[in-house]
Amino acid sequence: KMAADTSVEILQKVLENEILQTTKVVEEHLDAEIQKLDQMDEDELECLKQRRLEALKKAQQQKQEWLSKGHGEYREIPSERDFFQEVKESKDVVCHFYRDTTFRCQIMDKHLTVLAKKHVETKFLKLNAEKSPFLCERLRIKIIPTLALVKDGKTQDYVVGFTDLGNTDDFTTETLEWRLGCADIINYSGNLMDPPFQSQKKFGTSFTKLDKKTIRGKKYDSDSDDD
Fold first, then answer.
1. Residue 96: strand pairing partners
2. Quick one: which of 20, 36, 60, 164 is 20 to 30 A from 118 by CA?
């Protein structure tokens, strides 16, 4: 018992020492930063301020440019021709291929509306699969809903149905955001290794990319039970 107590005490001391060391390093770093600022003359501070302002201005201009290209809102495009135009002018595009009669498309709509406002860097679109047979054939879209994730004009990845989203109708917006982050189609600030599934043990961190075998069913297999 005493030996056990002693080892616990040693461990505790080691841990306390680690914490002290870390705190010391952080404090030294902060002190150095403060000292650096204190030693700066007015010209240097002005220069720093100008650089910061320039960076903010640039970010604002970039945002305005995105908004002028239709980013920031989740929009329906009327035709296949529009799809090609839209993906040509934006680096990152998420396009939801939907069908009016598929209930799960409405669920997807709800989440995409939120994400379009949050991730202005990416363009969020929807296109009626029944009005775009050529595209669906070319992109091999058979299950509805499917999100085509387009980077630099090329379709890089697909979110097919809700398989990657925890296989449930009540997945969270955060779960879809994580999945889009995995595809690097949005600027994701969370931890990709830690998916926000409702039950992480069950689903783990793996997600499936488009599997050719799953899409050779009948045309527009609905990924819901409402047909």
1. 126, 147
2. 164
Domain spans, the chain: 15-66, 72-183
CA dist 170 and 161 (Å) reads 13
CA–CA distance, 193 with 178 (Å, rounded to integer): 10
**Residue 195 token pair:** 């998916």
pTM comes to 0.67
Do residues 203 and 195 lie in contact, with contact meaning Cβ atoms separated by under 8 Å? yes
| Residue 164 neighbours by CB under 8 Å, 6+ apart | 179, 207, 208
72-183: CATH topology is Glutaredoxin (3.40.30)
Positive/negative CA dihedral, 158, 159, 160, 163: positive
Residues in the chain: 227
Residue 90: both structure tokens together:
């934006």
- The DSSP string of 98-151 is E-TT-HHHHHHHHHHHHHHHH-TTSEEEEEEGGG-HHHHHHTT--EESEEEEEE
Digit-coded pLDDT (tens) for 161-213: 999 898 899 999 999 999 999 999 999 988 888 888 744 444 444 444 444 43
For residue 74, the model assigns a pLDDT of: 97
Euclidean distance between CA atoms 169 and 103, whole angstroms: 10
